[in-house]
Amino acid sequence: MSLITPDFGLLFWMTLIFAIVFFILAKFGFPLITGMVKKRSDLIEQSLRDAEEARKALKELAEEQKRMIEEARKEQARILNEAATAGDKIVQEAKDQAREQTTAMIEKAREDIRIEQETARREIAGEVATLSVEVAEKLVRSHLDSAQRQSELIDKLIEEARASHGQVN
Length: 169
Known about the structure:
The chain is mainly α. The mean pLDDT is 88. The chain has 2 helices and no strands.
């Protein structure tokens, strides 16, 4: 027997053993191996689908986050605008109220001045009347220093009174 060319019997037994091992592997081993490969392939495909779904969900979440941020910015701008409007309104109301109070104070001051002027006029009129009476009294005393002049004045006043009432002697 030579090392390079095998014997016919050896080839027969090797072929028979190979066929038996192949049969056993084909009957029990290959289905198990192919089943495991199939499970592994299915698991990989499922993982890829899950990863794609997760990527889509993450993309949707990112879009939702952007939308929420944009809404928050709009809300912030709206609130700031409302605050500015409210501030302007408060300032305008304060100005209007100050204007009204100023107008009321001016009107009260005018009324007080008018009352003071009226009071001053009355006091001056009283003073003038008093002075007039005093001057008239002094004039009358100086002109009516005699009894005859007093009598003439009384007669004259009586005649004027009768004439004004329609009674004539």
